[in-house]
Amino acid sequence: MAAARSSAVENGAPRGSIRRPLLRSLIRFLLLAAAPLVAVGFAWYRSARLEERREAGLRALGAEGLFLFSSLDTDRDLYLSPEEFKPIAEKLAGLSPPAEFEEEEDRDPNGETLTVEARMQPLRMDTMTKSKDGFLGVTHSSLSGLRSWKSPAVPSTVISARQFRAFLPPKDKLDVGDAWWIVPSELNIFTGYLPNNRYQPPPPRGKEVIIHSLLSMFHPRPFIKTRFAPQGAVGCIRAASEYYFDIAFRIHAEFQLNDVPDFPFWFTPGQFTGHVLLSRDASHVREFHLYVPNDRSLNVDMEWLYGASESSNMEVDIGYLPQMELQATGPSVPTFIHDEEGNVIDSRVGGAGGDPVQFVFEEIHWKSEISREEAARRMEVTFYPFKKVEYLPFSEAFDRAQAEKKLVHSILLWGALDDQSCSGRTLRETVLESSPVLALLNQSFISSWSLVKELEDLQVSHLAALHLEKYNFPVEMMLALPNGTVVHHINANYFLDQTAMKPEEDDGTMFSFSGGFEDPSTSTYIRFLQEGLEKAKEYLEQ
Ligand SMILES: *[C@@H]1O[C@H](CO)[C@@H](O)[C@H](O)[C@H]1NC(C)=O
Ligand SMILES: *[C@@H]1O[C@H](CO)[C@@H](O)[C@H](O)[C@H]1NC(C)=O
Fold this sequence. Notes:
Largest sheet: 10 strands, antiparallel
Mean pLDDT: 80
Number of domains: 3
Oligomer: single chain
Structural class: alpha+beta
Number of helices: 15
Low-confidence stretches: 1-42, 96-102, 502-517
Bound molecules: 2-acetamido-2-deoxy-beta-D-glucopyranose
Helix content: 25-40%
Shape: globular
Strand content: 15-25%
Protein backbone atom coordinates (compact mmCIF):
# COMPACT_ATOMS: atom_id res chain seq x y z
CA MET A 1 0.00 0.00 0.00
CA ALA A 2 2.84 2.36 0.80
CA ALA A 3 4.19 2.00 -2.74
CA ALA A 4 0.79 2.65 -4.30
CA ARG A 5 0.36 5.74 -2.16
CA SER A 6 3.74 7.23 -2.95
CA SER A 7 3.27 6.79 -6.69
CA ALA A 8 -0.15 8.37 -6.29
CA VAL A 9 1.54 11.37 -4.75
CA GLU A 10 3.89 11.62 -7.71
CA ASN A 11 0.96 11.44 -10.07
CA GLY A 12 -0.65 14.26 -8.13
CA ALA A 13 1.74 16.86 -9.59
CA PRO A 14 -0.06 19.45 -11.72
CA ARG A 15 -0.70 18.17 -15.24
CA GLY A 16 -1.83 19.87 -18.41
CA SER A 17 -3.37 23.24 -18.96
CA ILE A 18 -6.46 22.79 -16.84
CA ARG A 19 -4.46 23.42 -13.73
CA ARG A 20 -2.38 26.36 -14.78
CA PRO A 21 -5.00 29.01 -14.02
CA LEU A 22 -5.38 27.35 -10.65
CA LEU A 23 -1.67 27.71 -10.06
CA ARG A 24 -1.72 31.38 -11.05
CA SER A 25 -4.57 32.25 -8.76
CA LEU A 26 -2.90 30.21 -6.04
CA ILE A 27 0.25 32.33 -6.36
CA ARG A 28 -1.83 35.50 -6.17
CA PHE A 29 -3.53 34.05 -3.13
CA LEU A 30 -0.21 33.22 -1.47
CA LEU A 31 1.12 36.73 -2.05
CA LEU A 32 -1.86 38.20 -0.31
CA ALA A 33 -2.15 35.81 2.59
CA ALA A 34 -0.31 36.24 5.84
CA ALA A 35 2.27 33.53 6.45
CA PRO A 36 0.58 31.59 9.28
CA LEU A 37 -2.61 31.41 7.30
CA VAL A 38 -1.03 29.93 4.20
CA ALA A 39 -1.21 26.30 5.21
CA VAL A 40 -4.75 26.54 6.47
CA GLY A 41 -5.79 28.56 3.46
CA PHE A 42 -4.23 26.10 1.06
CA ALA A 43 -5.91 23.12 2.68
CA TRP A 44 -9.24 24.95 2.58
CA TYR A 45 -8.64 25.96 -1.03
CA ARG A 46 -7.82 22.38 -2.04
CA SER A 47 -10.78 20.83 -0.35
CA ALA A 48 -13.07 23.49 -1.80
CA ARG A 49 -11.73 22.74 -5.31
CA LEU A 50 -12.09 19.00 -4.74
CA GLU A 51 -15.66 19.49 -3.60
CA GLU A 52 -16.36 21.52 -6.74
CA ARG A 53 -14.88 18.82 -8.94
CA ARG A 54 -16.84 16.14 -7.13
CA GLU A 55 -20.06 18.03 -7.73
CA ALA A 56 -19.18 18.52 -11.38
CA GLY A 57 -18.39 14.81 -11.61
CA LEU A 58 -21.70 13.92 -10.04
CA ARG A 59 -23.56 16.10 -12.54
CA ALA A 60 -21.71 14.62 -15.48
CA LEU A 61 -21.68 10.98 -14.46
CA GLY A 62 -24.32 10.37 -11.81
CA ALA A 63 -23.60 8.51 -8.56
CA GLU A 64 -22.77 5.18 -10.18
CA GLY A 65 -20.61 6.74 -12.83
CA LEU A 66 -18.74 8.79 -10.29
CA PHE A 67 -18.19 5.66 -8.23
CA LEU A 68 -16.70 3.92 -11.24
CA PHE A 69 -14.50 6.93 -11.87
CA SER A 70 -13.39 7.11 -8.22
CA SER A 71 -12.51 3.43 -8.17
CA LEU A 72 -9.87 4.18 -10.81
CA ASP A 73 -8.73 7.47 -9.28
CA THR A 74 -6.21 6.02 -6.84
CA ASP A 75 -4.78 9.35 -5.66
CA ARG A 76 -8.28 10.81 -5.19
CA ASP A 77 -7.57 14.06 -7.00
CA LEU A 78 -10.55 13.56 -9.34
CA TYR A 79 -8.32 13.46 -12.40
CA LEU A 80 -7.36 10.25 -14.19
CA SER A 81 -3.72 9.86 -15.11
CA PRO A 82 -2.74 7.43 -17.91
CA GLU A 83 -1.55 5.03 -15.20
CA GLU A 84 -4.94 5.19 -13.50
CA PHE A 85 -6.74 4.68 -16.81
CA LYS A 86 -4.73 1.52 -17.56
CA PRO A 87 -7.26 -1.04 -16.25
CA ILE A 88 -9.91 0.40 -18.59
CA ALA A 89 -7.52 0.53 -21.55
CA GLU A 90 -6.64 -3.11 -20.96
CA LYS A 91 -10.28 -4.03 -20.72
CA LEU A 92 -11.34 -2.18 -23.88
CA ALA A 93 -8.35 -3.33 -25.91
CA GLY A 94 -8.70 -6.90 -24.64
CA LEU A 95 -5.15 -6.95 -23.30
CA SER A 96 -4.58 -9.01 -20.21
CA PRO A 97 -2.42 -7.59 -17.45
CA PRO A 98 1.05 -9.17 -17.19
CA ALA A 99 0.05 -11.89 -14.72
CA GLU A 100 2.52 -14.51 -15.90
CA PHE A 101 6.10 -13.43 -15.66
CA GLU A 102 7.66 -16.81 -15.36
CA GLU A 103 11.36 -17.17 -15.47
CA GLU A 104 13.08 -18.92 -18.39
CA GLU A 105 13.69 -22.18 -16.59
CA ASP A 106 9.98 -22.76 -16.02
CA ARG A 107 9.62 -23.34 -19.74
CA ASP A 108 12.42 -25.90 -19.89
CA PRO A 109 11.07 -28.35 -22.53
CA ASN A 110 12.83 -31.23 -20.77
CA GLY A 111 11.21 -30.36 -17.45
CA GLU A 112 8.36 -32.36 -15.95
CA THR A 113 4.76 -31.22 -15.94
CA LEU A 114 1.67 -32.25 -14.01
CA THR A 115 -2.06 -31.82 -14.54
CA VAL A 116 -3.99 -30.06 -11.80
CA GLU A 117 -7.79 -30.27 -11.63
CA ALA A 118 -10.13 -27.87 -9.81
CA ARG A 119 -13.38 -28.85 -8.14
CA MET A 120 -15.87 -26.68 -6.31
CA GLN A 121 -19.44 -26.59 -5.10
CA PRO A 122 -20.83 -23.08 -4.82
CA LEU A 123 -21.49 -21.37 -1.52
CA ARG A 124 -24.70 -22.57 0.10
CA MET A 125 -26.73 -19.35 -0.01
CA ASP A 126 -29.13 -20.60 2.70
CA THR A 127 -26.25 -20.61 5.23
CA MET A 128 -25.83 -16.84 4.98
CA THR A 129 -27.34 -14.89 7.87
CA LYS A 130 -28.97 -12.52 5.38
CA SER A 131 -30.89 -15.43 3.81
CA LYS A 132 -33.05 -15.62 6.97
CA ASP A 133 -34.89 -12.44 5.97
CA GLY A 134 -34.79 -13.30 2.28
CA PHE A 135 -31.83 -10.95 1.62
CA LEU A 136 -34.07 -8.05 2.47
CA GLY A 137 -32.38 -4.77 1.65
CA VAL A 138 -29.53 -6.44 -0.24
CA THR A 139 -29.52 -5.10 -3.78
CA HIS A 140 -29.49 -7.68 -6.52
CA SER A 141 -26.24 -6.38 -7.99
CA SER A 142 -24.36 -6.87 -4.68
CA LEU A 143 -24.74 -10.63 -4.87
CA SER A 144 -24.52 -11.03 -8.64
CA GLY A 145 -20.87 -12.11 -8.62
CA LEU A 146 -21.58 -14.66 -5.88
CA ARG A 147 -24.75 -16.04 -7.46
CA SER A 148 -23.17 -16.52 -10.86
CA TRP A 149 -20.05 -18.29 -9.54
CA LYS A 150 -21.07 -21.93 -9.89
CA SER A 151 -17.93 -23.72 -11.04
CA PRO A 152 -14.15 -23.29 -11.35
CA ALA A 153 -12.99 -20.77 -13.95
CA VAL A 154 -10.35 -23.25 -15.16
CA PRO A 155 -11.30 -26.91 -14.50
CA SER A 156 -7.92 -28.34 -15.48
CA THR A 157 -4.45 -27.05 -16.31
CA VAL A 158 -0.93 -28.28 -16.94
CA ILE A 159 1.79 -26.78 -14.71
CA SER A 160 5.52 -27.31 -14.77
CA ALA A 161 6.96 -29.03 -11.70
CA ARG A 162 9.66 -26.36 -11.43
CA GLN A 163 7.07 -23.75 -10.55
CA PHE A 164 6.41 -25.55 -7.26
CA ARG A 165 9.92 -24.63 -6.09
CA ALA A 166 8.19 -21.61 -4.50
CA PHE A 167 7.06 -24.09 -1.81
CA LEU A 168 10.61 -25.25 -0.98
CA PRO A 169 11.99 -24.13 2.39
CA PRO A 170 14.74 -21.51 2.71
CA LYS A 171 18.27 -22.76 3.43
CA ASP A 172 18.03 -22.14 7.16
CA LYS A 173 14.78 -24.14 7.57
CA LEU A 174 15.54 -27.66 6.49
CA ASP A 175 14.41 -29.66 9.53
CA VAL A 176 11.11 -31.45 9.83
CA GLY A 177 8.69 -29.21 11.72
CA ASP A 178 10.32 -25.96 10.59
CA ALA A 179 7.80 -23.34 9.46
CA TRP A 180 8.51 -20.24 7.34
CA TRP A 181 6.75 -17.50 5.41
CA ILE A 182 6.32 -18.34 1.71
CA VAL A 183 4.60 -14.99 1.22
CA PRO A 184 5.33 -12.80 4.24
CA SER A 185 2.59 -10.70 5.75
CA GLU A 186 3.07 -6.99 5.19
CA LEU A 187 0.33 -5.93 7.56
CA ASN A 188 0.64 -4.92 11.14
CA ILE A 189 -1.14 -2.61 13.49
CA PHE A 190 0.85 0.37 12.16
CA THR A 191 0.49 -0.20 8.42
CA GLY A 192 -3.28 -0.48 8.66
CA TYR A 193 -5.33 -2.39 6.13
CA LEU A 194 -5.45 -2.58 2.36
CA PRO A 195 -8.32 -0.70 0.68
CA ASN A 196 -11.69 -2.38 0.07
CA ASN A 197 -12.39 -0.36 -3.03
CA ARG A 198 -10.51 -2.49 -5.59
CA TYR A 199 -11.46 -4.86 -8.41
CA GLN A 200 -8.24 -6.08 -10.02
CA PRO A 201 -5.55 -7.89 -8.05
CA PRO A 202 -2.07 -6.36 -8.26
CA PRO A 203 0.28 -8.36 -10.53
CA PRO A 204 1.80 -11.19 -8.44
CA ARG A 205 5.55 -11.15 -7.82
CA GLY A 206 8.04 -13.93 -7.09
CA LYS A 207 6.54 -16.76 -5.07
CA GLU A 208 3.10 -15.19 -5.34
CA VAL A 209 3.00 -16.14 -9.04
CA ILE A 210 2.35 -19.87 -8.60
CA ILE A 211 -0.20 -19.26 -5.82
CA HIS A 212 -1.93 -16.69 -8.01
CA SER A 213 -2.10 -19.11 -10.98
CA LEU A 214 -3.43 -21.92 -8.80
CA LEU A 215 -6.14 -19.80 -7.16
CA SER A 216 -7.04 -18.29 -10.56
CA MET A 217 -8.36 -21.74 -11.44
CA PHE A 218 -11.29 -21.04 -9.09
CA HIS A 219 -11.93 -17.41 -9.99
CA PRO A 220 -10.12 -14.90 -12.24
CA ARG A 221 -9.59 -12.30 -9.48
CA PRO A 222 -7.69 -13.82 -6.53
CA PHE A 223 -5.90 -11.40 -4.18
CA ILE A 224 -2.84 -13.11 -2.70
CA LYS A 225 -2.49 -10.29 -0.18
CA THR A 226 -5.67 -10.15 1.91
CA ARG A 227 -6.94 -6.75 3.01
CA PHE A 228 -6.81 -7.73 6.68
CA ALA A 229 -4.60 -9.93 8.82
CA PRO A 230 -3.98 -12.81 8.75
CA GLN A 231 -2.19 -12.19 5.47
CA GLY A 232 0.32 -14.26 3.50
CA ALA A 233 1.28 -17.90 3.13
CA VAL A 234 3.24 -20.21 5.43
CA GLY A 235 4.90 -23.55 4.75
CA CYS A 236 6.07 -26.32 7.11
CA ILE A 237 8.21 -29.38 6.44
CA ARG A 238 6.00 -32.29 7.45
CA ALA A 239 8.36 -35.05 6.33
CA ALA A 240 11.79 -35.35 4.78
CA SER A 241 13.79 -38.06 3.03
CA GLU A 242 17.12 -37.88 1.30
CA TYR A 243 15.56 -36.65 -1.94
CA TYR A 244 12.05 -35.49 -1.02
CA PHE A 245 10.08 -33.10 1.14
CA ASP A 246 6.44 -33.25 2.07
CA ILE A 247 5.54 -29.59 2.54
CA ALA A 248 2.33 -28.58 4.29
CA PHE A 249 1.09 -25.07 3.54
CA ARG A 250 -1.53 -22.60 4.66
CA ILE A 251 -2.54 -19.64 2.53
CA HIS A 252 -4.75 -16.65 3.36
CA ALA A 253 -6.12 -15.16 0.16
CA GLU A 254 -9.44 -13.79 -1.04
CA PHE A 255 -11.43 -13.21 -4.22
CA GLN A 256 -13.09 -10.12 -5.63
CA LEU A 257 -16.35 -11.50 -7.05
CA ASN A 258 -17.86 -8.32 -8.49
CA ASP A 259 -16.67 -6.18 -11.33
CA VAL A 260 -17.59 -2.65 -12.40
CA PRO A 261 -20.23 -1.25 -12.34
CA ASP A 262 -21.23 -3.30 -9.26
CA PHE A 263 -19.72 -2.41 -5.91
CA PRO A 264 -16.90 -4.64 -4.63
CA PHE A 265 -17.78 -7.98 -3.03
CA TRP A 266 -15.00 -9.76 -1.10
CA PHE A 267 -15.10 -13.53 -0.63
CA THR A 268 -12.63 -14.70 2.00
CA PRO A 269 -12.39 -18.42 2.81
CA GLY A 270 -11.17 -19.21 6.34
CA GLN A 271 -7.94 -20.52 4.78
CA PHE A 272 -6.52 -22.59 1.93
CA THR A 273 -4.41 -25.50 3.08
CA GLY A 274 -2.90 -28.70 1.69
CA HIS A 275 0.44 -30.24 0.85
CA VAL A 276 2.92 -30.69 -1.94
CA LEU A 277 5.25 -33.69 -2.01
CA LEU A 278 8.23 -32.82 -4.19
CA SER A 279 11.89 -33.53 -4.79
CA ARG A 280 14.38 -31.27 -3.04
CA ASP A 281 15.34 -29.69 -6.38
CA ALA A 282 11.69 -29.29 -7.44
CA SER A 283 12.27 -31.21 -10.67
CA HIS A 284 9.55 -33.70 -9.69
CA VAL A 285 6.20 -33.27 -7.93
CA ARG A 286 4.73 -36.51 -6.60
CA GLU A 287 1.51 -35.18 -5.01
CA PHE A 288 -0.29 -31.87 -4.79
CA HIS A 289 -3.52 -31.07 -2.98
CA LEU A 290 -4.99 -27.69 -1.97
CA TYR A 291 -8.42 -27.15 -0.35
CA VAL A 292 -10.60 -24.95 1.82
CA PRO A 293 -11.37 -26.89 5.03
CA ASN A 294 -15.10 -27.69 5.23
CA ASP A 295 -15.26 -29.32 8.66
CA ARG A 296 -16.74 -26.25 10.36
CA SER A 297 -20.35 -25.16 9.90
CA LEU A 298 -19.22 -21.80 8.45
CA ASN A 299 -16.01 -21.30 6.52
CA VAL A 300 -16.27 -18.13 4.42
CA ASP A 301 -16.35 -14.45 5.32
CA MET A 302 -18.03 -12.08 2.89
CA GLU A 303 -17.97 -8.30 2.83
CA TRP A 304 -19.52 -6.00 0.30
CA LEU A 305 -19.63 -2.26 -0.13
CA TYR A 306 -22.67 -0.02 -0.46
CA GLY A 307 -21.03 3.03 -1.92
CA ALA A 308 -18.25 4.75 -3.69
CA SER A 309 -15.54 5.29 -1.11
CA GLU A 310 -13.52 3.58 1.58
CA SER A 311 -15.82 4.99 4.23
CA SER A 312 -18.95 3.64 2.56
CA ASN A 313 -21.21 1.29 4.41
CA MET A 314 -20.14 -2.28 4.39
CA GLU A 315 -22.24 -5.38 4.78
CA VAL A 316 -20.73 -8.46 6.39
CA ASP A 317 -21.95 -12.05 6.28
CA ILE A 318 -20.66 -15.59 6.70
CA GLY A 319 -21.53 -18.80 4.91
CA TYR A 320 -20.65 -22.40 4.14
CA LEU A 321 -18.65 -23.49 1.12
CA PRO A 322 -18.93 -27.31 0.79
CA GLN A 323 -16.01 -27.79 -1.61
CA MET A 324 -13.15 -25.86 -3.13
CA GLU A 325 -10.09 -27.91 -4.02
CA LEU A 326 -7.25 -28.51 -6.43
CA GLN A 327 -5.61 -31.86 -6.93
CA ALA A 328 -2.86 -33.22 -9.16
CA THR A 329 -4.12 -36.12 -11.27
CA GLY A 330 -0.79 -37.89 -10.73
CA PRO A 331 2.94 -37.32 -10.36
CA SER A 332 4.72 -34.96 -12.74
CA VAL A 333 6.29 -36.61 -15.79
CA PRO A 334 8.62 -35.45 -18.53
CA THR A 335 6.83 -34.62 -21.77
CA PHE A 336 9.71 -35.86 -23.93
CA ILE A 337 12.03 -38.76 -23.17
CA HIS A 338 14.87 -40.41 -25.07
CA ASP A 339 14.74 -44.12 -25.90
CA GLU A 340 17.80 -46.40 -26.02
CA GLU A 341 18.63 -45.27 -29.55
CA GLY A 342 18.48 -41.64 -28.60
CA ASN A 343 15.15 -40.96 -30.32
CA VAL A 344 12.95 -38.32 -28.73
CA ILE A 345 9.57 -39.73 -27.75
CA ASP A 346 6.52 -37.75 -26.69
CA SER A 347 5.52 -39.54 -23.48
CA ARG A 348 1.82 -38.83 -24.04
CA VAL A 349 1.84 -40.59 -27.40
CA GLY A 350 4.49 -43.26 -26.88
CA GLY A 351 7.16 -44.69 -29.20
CA ALA A 352 6.69 -46.01 -32.70
CA GLY A 353 3.11 -47.29 -32.75
CA GLY A 354 3.26 -47.78 -28.98
CA ASP A 355 0.96 -46.86 -26.10
CA PRO A 356 1.67 -43.87 -23.88
CA VAL A 357 4.80 -44.39 -21.82
CA GLN A 358 4.24 -45.99 -18.40
CA PHE A 359 6.37 -44.42 -15.68
CA VAL A 360 7.42 -46.26 -12.55
CA PHE A 361 8.06 -44.11 -9.48
CA GLU A 362 10.46 -44.98 -6.72
CA GLU A 363 9.01 -45.49 -3.28
CA ILE A 364 9.72 -42.74 -0.75
CA HIS A 365 10.96 -43.70 2.72
CA TRP A 366 10.73 -40.78 5.16
CA LYS A 367 13.73 -40.36 7.42
CA SER A 368 11.78 -38.13 9.73
CA GLU A 369 8.17 -36.89 9.89
CA ILE A 370 5.48 -35.27 12.03
CA SER A 371 1.70 -35.63 11.80
CA ARG A 372 -0.43 -33.36 9.57
CA GLU A 373 -2.06 -31.99 12.75
CA GLU A 374 1.31 -31.04 14.24
CA ALA A 375 2.36 -29.33 11.00
CA ALA A 376 -0.97 -27.44 11.00
CA ARG A 377 -0.37 -26.33 14.60
CA ARG A 378 3.10 -25.00 13.78
CA MET A 379 1.77 -23.02 10.85
CA GLU A 380 -1.02 -21.66 13.03
CA VAL A 381 1.47 -20.37 15.60
CA THR A 382 3.43 -18.72 12.79
CA PHE A 383 0.28 -16.85 11.73
CA TYR A 384 -0.90 -16.19 15.27
CA PRO A 385 1.96 -15.78 17.74
CA PHE A 386 -0.63 -15.38 20.55
CA LYS A 387 -1.21 -19.13 20.22
CA LYS A 388 2.23 -19.82 21.67
CA VAL A 389 0.21 -20.25 24.83
CA GLU A 390 -2.49 -22.84 24.56
CA TYR A 391 -6.11 -21.66 24.40
CA LEU A 392 -8.40 -24.40 25.75
CA PRO A 393 -12.14 -24.83 25.21
CA PHE A 394 -14.20 -23.13 27.95
CA SER A 395 -15.07 -26.06 30.24
CA GLU A 396 -11.72 -27.73 29.80
CA ALA A 397 -9.96 -24.54 30.88
CA PHE A 398 -11.84 -24.54 34.20
CA ASP A 399 -11.02 -28.22 34.81
CA ARG A 400 -7.36 -27.57 34.13
CA ALA A 401 -7.34 -24.46 36.34
CA GLN A 402 -8.91 -26.47 39.15
CA ALA A 403 -6.24 -29.16 38.85
CA GLU A 404 -3.34 -26.71 38.64
CA LYS A 405 -4.79 -24.14 41.04
CA LYS A 406 -4.48 -21.31 38.56
CA LEU A 407 -6.70 -18.49 37.36
CA VAL A 408 -8.62 -18.75 34.11
CA HIS A 409 -7.72 -16.00 31.63
CA SER A 410 -10.72 -15.95 29.37
CA ILE A 411 -11.67 -13.82 26.41
CA LEU A 412 -15.31 -13.60 25.49
CA LEU A 413 -16.02 -12.27 22.03
CA TRP A 414 -18.80 -11.60 19.60
CA GLY A 415 -16.71 -12.87 16.62
CA ALA A 416 -13.92 -15.46 16.70
CA LEU A 417 -10.44 -14.55 17.89
CA ASP A 418 -8.62 -16.43 15.16
CA ASP A 419 -10.77 -15.64 12.14
CA GLN A 420 -10.67 -12.51 10.01
CA SER A 421 -13.31 -10.73 12.04
CA CYS A 422 -12.71 -7.31 13.41
CA SER A 423 -13.34 -7.74 17.13
CA GLY A 424 -10.42 -10.04 17.80
CA ARG A 425 -7.99 -8.39 15.40
CA THR A 426 -6.75 -5.52 17.48
CA LEU A 427 -6.18 -7.60 20.58
CA ARG A 428 -4.52 -10.43 18.77
CA GLU A 429 -2.13 -8.17 16.89
CA THR A 430 -0.95 -6.31 19.94
CA VAL A 431 -1.00 -7.41 23.55
CA LEU A 432 -1.78 -11.09 23.19
CA GLU A 433 1.35 -11.73 21.16
CA SER A 434 3.76 -9.56 23.11
CA SER A 435 6.35 -11.69 24.85
CA PRO A 436 5.93 -10.39 28.44
CA VAL A 437 2.20 -11.12 28.24
CA LEU A 438 2.84 -14.55 26.72
CA ALA A 439 5.29 -15.37 29.50
CA LEU A 440 2.93 -14.31 32.31
CA LEU A 441 -0.04 -16.13 30.77
CA ASN A 442 2.07 -19.25 30.36
CA GLN A 443 3.26 -19.14 33.94
CA SER A 444 0.18 -18.22 35.97
CA PHE A 445 -2.98 -18.68 33.92
CA ILE A 446 -5.00 -21.18 31.93
CA SER A 447 -6.22 -19.38 28.81
CA SER A 448 -9.42 -19.80 26.88
CA TRP A 449 -11.51 -17.87 24.42
CA SER A 450 -15.17 -18.34 23.58
CA LEU A 451 -17.90 -16.88 21.48
CA VAL A 452 -20.85 -15.31 23.27
CA LYS A 453 -23.10 -17.56 21.18
CA GLU A 454 -21.32 -20.70 22.39
CA LEU A 455 -21.65 -19.77 26.03
CA GLU A 456 -25.32 -18.94 25.59
CA ASP A 457 -25.79 -22.44 24.22
CA LEU A 458 -24.09 -23.80 27.37
CA GLN A 459 -26.83 -22.25 29.50
CA VAL A 460 -27.00 -25.11 31.97
CA SER A 461 -23.45 -24.36 32.99
CA HIS A 462 -23.31 -21.91 35.92
CA LEU A 463 -19.71 -21.14 34.86
CA ALA A 464 -21.03 -19.75 31.58
CA ALA A 465 -23.74 -17.79 33.38
CA LEU A 466 -21.19 -16.13 35.69
CA HIS A 467 -19.20 -15.18 32.61
CA LEU A 468 -22.09 -13.78 30.60
CA GLU A 469 -23.11 -11.64 33.58
CA LYS A 470 -19.89 -9.64 33.17
CA TYR A 471 -19.88 -9.47 29.39
CA ASN A 472 -20.06 -6.24 27.42
CA PHE A 473 -19.97 -5.93 23.63
CA PRO A 474 -17.76 -6.58 21.69
CA VAL A 475 -14.94 -8.23 23.66
CA GLU A 476 -14.50 -8.71 27.40
CA MET A 477 -11.34 -10.05 28.98
CA MET A 478 -11.98 -11.90 32.25
CA LEU A 479 -9.98 -13.47 35.03
CA ALA A 480 -11.90 -16.14 36.92
CA LEU A 481 -11.42 -18.58 39.78
CA PRO A 482 -11.83 -22.25 38.88
CA ASN A 483 -15.30 -22.16 40.50
CA GLY A 484 -16.35 -19.53 37.97
CA THR A 485 -16.24 -16.38 40.12
CA VAL A 486 -14.93 -13.56 37.93
CA VAL A 487 -12.40 -11.65 40.04
CA HIS A 488 -11.42 -9.04 37.45
CA HIS A 489 -12.54 -8.04 33.97
CA ILE A 490 -11.97 -5.33 31.40
CA ASN A 491 -13.77 -4.42 28.19
CA ALA A 492 -11.63 -4.28 25.04
CA ASN A 493 -12.91 -0.88 23.94
CA TYR A 494 -12.23 0.60 27.37
CA PHE A 495 -8.82 -1.05 27.35
CA LEU A 496 -7.93 0.38 23.95
CA ASP A 497 -9.13 3.88 24.91
CA GLN A 498 -7.04 3.75 28.06
CA THR A 499 -3.88 2.67 26.33
CA ALA A 500 -4.36 5.18 23.54
CA MET A 501 -4.61 8.08 25.98
CA LYS A 502 -1.94 7.66 28.59
CA PRO A 503 1.37 6.22 27.56
CA GLU A 504 3.43 5.60 30.71
CA GLU A 505 1.54 6.77 33.68
CA ASP A 506 1.92 4.27 36.45
CA ASP A 507 -0.33 5.17 39.34
CA GLY A 508 1.70 2.81 41.52
CA THR A 509 -1.29 1.78 43.59
CA MET A 510 -1.01 -1.93 43.11
CA PHE A 511 2.08 -2.79 41.13
CA SER A 512 5.02 -0.73 40.19
CA PHE A 513 6.26 -3.82 38.38
CA SER A 514 4.50 -3.05 35.09
CA GLY A 515 6.16 0.30 34.51
CA GLY A 516 9.10 -1.03 32.53
CA PHE A 517 7.51 -2.02 29.22
CA GLU A 518 7.76 0.35 26.34
CA ASP A 519 4.43 -0.49 24.80
CA PRO A 520 1.59 1.04 26.86
CA SER A 521 -0.92 -1.63 25.91
CA THR A 522 1.46 -4.36 27.02
CA SER A 523 2.10 -2.74 30.38
CA THR A 524 -1.61 -2.09 30.89
CA TYR A 525 -2.44 -5.70 30.10
CA ILE A 526 0.30 -6.97 32.41
CA ARG A 527 -1.15 -4.75 35.12
CA PHE A 528 -4.62 -6.14 34.47
CA LEU A 529 -3.30 -9.71 34.87
CA GLN A 530 -1.34 -8.79 38.01
CA GLU A 531 -4.39 -7.16 39.57
CA GLY A 532 -6.34 -10.37 38.96
CA LEU A 533 -3.65 -12.42 40.68
CA GLU A 534 -3.72 -10.01 43.61
CA LYS A 535 -7.50 -10.25 43.94
CA ALA A 536 -7.32 -14.04 43.83
CA LYS A 537 -4.47 -14.17 46.33
CA GLU A 538 -6.53 -15.70 49.11
CA TYR A 539 -7.72 -18.49 46.89
CA LEU A 540 -4.31 -19.09 45.36
CA GLU A 541 -2.60 -19.25 48.75
CA GLN A 542 -5.05 -21.71 50.26
C1 LIG B 1 5.71 -22.04 28.83
O1 LIG B 1 6.31 -22.71 29.93
C2 LIG B 1 6.94 -23.94 29.61
C3 LIG B 1 7.44 -24.59 30.90
O2 LIG B 1 7.38 -23.76 32.00
C4 LIG B 1 8.07 -23.67 28.62
O3 LIG B 1 8.68 -24.88 28.24
C5 LIG B 1 7.51 -22.99 27.38
O4 LIG B 1 8.53 -22.65 26.47
C6 LIG B 1 6.75 -21.72 27.76
N1 LIG B 1 6.13 -21.14 26.58
C7 LIG B 1 6.10 -19.81 26.36
C8 LIG B 1 5.39 -19.38 25.13
O5 LIG B 1 6.58 -19.00 27.11
C1 LIG C 1 -15.55 -19.44 44.59
O1 LIG C 1 -14.51 -19.48 45.55
C2 LIG C 1 -14.28 -18.25 46.23
C3 LIG C 1 -13.03 -18.39 47.09
O2 LIG C 1 -12.77 -19.72 47.46
C4 LIG C 1 -15.51 -17.87 47.04
O3 LIG C 1 -15.29 -16.67 47.72
C5 LIG C 1 -16.68 -17.75 46.08
O4 LIG C 1 -17.85 -17.48 46.79
C6 LIG C 1 -16.86 -19.02 45.25
N1 LIG C 1 -17.86 -18.78 44.27
C7 LIG C 1 -18.83 -19.62 43.96
C8 LIG C 1 -19.75 -19.21 42.87
O5 LIG C 1 -18.95 -20.69 44.52
